[in-house]
Amino acid sequence: MLGTDTPTMILPNRRLKLDTLVRLRWLAVAGQSVTLLVVHLGLGYPFPVGLAFALVALSAWLNIFLKIHAPSTLRISESAATWQLSYDILQMSGLLFLTGGLGNPFAFLLLAPVMVSATALSARKTAVLGFLACVCASFLAMWHLPLPWPSDLDFKLPPVYSVGVWIALVSSLGFMAAYAFRVAEEARQLADALAATELVLAREQHLNALDGLATAAAHELGTPLATIYLAAKELGDEFQPDDARAEDVALIRSQAERCRQILKQLTSLSSDQDRTYQRMPMTQLIEEVIAPHRGFGVEISVKAAGQGPEPIGSRNAAIRYGLGNLVENAIDFARTAVEVQAVWDDTSVALTITDDGPGFSPDVLAKIGDPYVSERGAKSGRKDSGGGLGLGFFIAKTLLERTGAKIFLQNQSPPARGAQIRVSWPRDVIETASKIDERRVSAHIDHV
């Protein structure tokens, strides 16, 4: 049937923690301070000690500033991490400039910030930092103050040796950065695959448990709903058509019938008969989904357009139930209107559900689709709508993903208001009945 545009699973962000960079910089400050003290006080070698300690103090003040103005658990963006690591390269280059350039045995510490980037940042950011380190190394190879040495001796490196040190530094930088990045990337990919697998298995296990509960609920609720329906039908015959009570009884009867239909869907989500017979075009599917939700004070408009003939898929209860739940959620939070728009082309089919309600709260937007997470962070103003536990949305999302759909959720761009849910499928999945109910964990992982 129609495929959904399920949002690919969002894995935990792998950005660096600010505290990690701060701790590494404190380690550098301590090491630099001890080295300068040993060279100045222990060995008595002359060098611009005031400027050198000023550079060390600058790193210390930067750490203090970051600790005061940002929490330790903050994960910074790649750009912010790149700027901080760039500062570390420049600060080390400044110390090397004051203490002999590439002739200083600590010159290879220029590699450290690039190694940190290779293990935590993208290849592009690592290349930028590597280029900066190469520029600094080239500058230090030609311009620097004398290496700290006993004042009665004049220590100078032969030009050939200086060139050799520069080549060794640049070569080590390129090789070690590439090696560290490759190893770290493989570890990240493995961690992502394991996390994705665990997430999918957990969601499937939870849904399977809910499947059993749904079947039991359908069985237990079937008898009392039938009783309510029959009682409402008999009461309806006792009132005149113009009696106000007749309208209330008719409403009770229609809602009881709707409950019976919902329970019937829950017990037939995997029915062979349901997915084998009765093919329907997309517009008919949309009408079937939204029909039970009309007449609740919210205007529902439908738009359908696309390239080529309208997609025709097999009737599938999982898709009808999933889309119906999304539409019902939009109606619950809409102020006045909900729009359902279908578009298609030769390769894909997409369905967009938009409401004019308060939209998704930013703090729960990334968690929507997990069980026991409220779907909206703001109240809609309707007494009968609340945040809920998110189970309905979780079930709808998982059922739609099982059909090969992807789901994307977002708030409309200002000045528009409200939430927008986009469900998309590959067109061949919708039009090929045999692909609708495939359930493959690998298919979910491929989307990660």
Description of the structure:
The chain has three domains: 18-193, no CATH class; 200-266; 273-446, Histidine kinase-like ATPase, C-terminal domain (Heat Shock Protein 90). The two termini are 23 Å apart. Helix 1 runs antiparallel to helix 2 (49-69), helix 2 runs antiparallel to helix 3 and helix 4 (111-120) runs parallel beside helix 6 (159-236). 57% of the residues lie in helices and 10% in strands. The protein is α+β, with helices and mostly antiparallel strands and 448 residues long. Mean pLDDT is 77; it is low at 1-13, 270-277, 377-389 and 434-448. It is elongated and about 120 Å long. A hairpin with a 7-residue loop joins strand 6 (406-411) and strand 7. The strands form two sheets. A five-stranded mixed beta sheet has the order 2-4-5-7-6. It has a two-stranded antiparallel ribbon with strand order 1-3. The chain contains 14 helices and seven strands. Its EC number is 2.7.13.3. InterPro entries: 2C_sensor_his_kinase (IPR050980), HATPase_C_sf (IPR036890), HATPase_dom (IPR003594), His_kinase_dom (IPR005467), HisK_dim/P_dom (IPR003661), HisK_dim/P_sf (IPR036097), RegB (IPR047770), Sig_transdc_His_kin-like_C (IPR004358). Residues 216-429 form the Histidine kinase domain. Pfam families: HATPase_c (PF02518), HisKA (PF00512). This is histidine kinase.
